[in-house]
UniProtKB/TrEMBL annotation:
InterPro entries named among the record's database cross-references: CHP02453, UCP028451
Domain of life from the UniProt record: Bacteria
Pfam family, one: DUF2461
Designated name of the protein: TIGR02453 family protein
Organism: Arenibacter palladensis
Taxonomic placement: Bacteria, Pseudomonadati, Bacteroidota, Flavobacteriia, Flavobacteriales
Amino acid sequence: MSRIQQQLITKDVFQFLENLKKNNSREWFAEHKTEFKELETEVKSFYSALMNKLKAHDDIEKLKMFRIYRDVRFSKDKTPYKTHFAGSFSRAGQRLRGGYYLRLKPKETFIAAGFWEPNKEDLFRIRKEFETDASEIRAIMDKKSFKEVWGDMQGDELKTAPSGFDKDHPNIDLIKRKQFIFIKNFSDKEVMSPNFLTNVDLAFQEIRPYFNLMSDILTTNLNGESLLD
């Protein structure tokens, strides 16, 4: 059985990324383009397999694989290539909010889930919900199995209360957030394990209660009335 059929991330993938980090030039990449294409096919197969697993318990609209080429126009770092593979999975429909993400990088692989850049309206709605009642979100985050997989909520936050909110509010730790994401790191050994695909999928299953609650919040008003047509 080939490694693509087995849905593994092999040592070859990480070795190529390590070599690319040391030789991040167009000349070196051109010389190793065939190797890159073969490994890219292997990685894409893994992401496709993960999408199929996600579809068994969620409604996934699309998989987006990010290109390895860097946009250096506005960056001080002019190296032309990323030294990781990454992809995101979008949930389908207006009612299903949140997204899944996987980055593969030597010694820095992680999965993430949640809300990276809520628009102004969504951010205000989330904050108003937490101002009114944060018991449901805290119950989800404090659940032992959830905590063991995802730890604490991460992401950018304001230094103080947003305009119109009380800085002494008991839920100010949630209200002042600008991002609502969870991250789980994996060692290289864990990534190359035959169980990696299953373990990532199980972690994403554990995030579902959080997505369900946030989807309800973002598709209703504070009276619980639907905002969808």
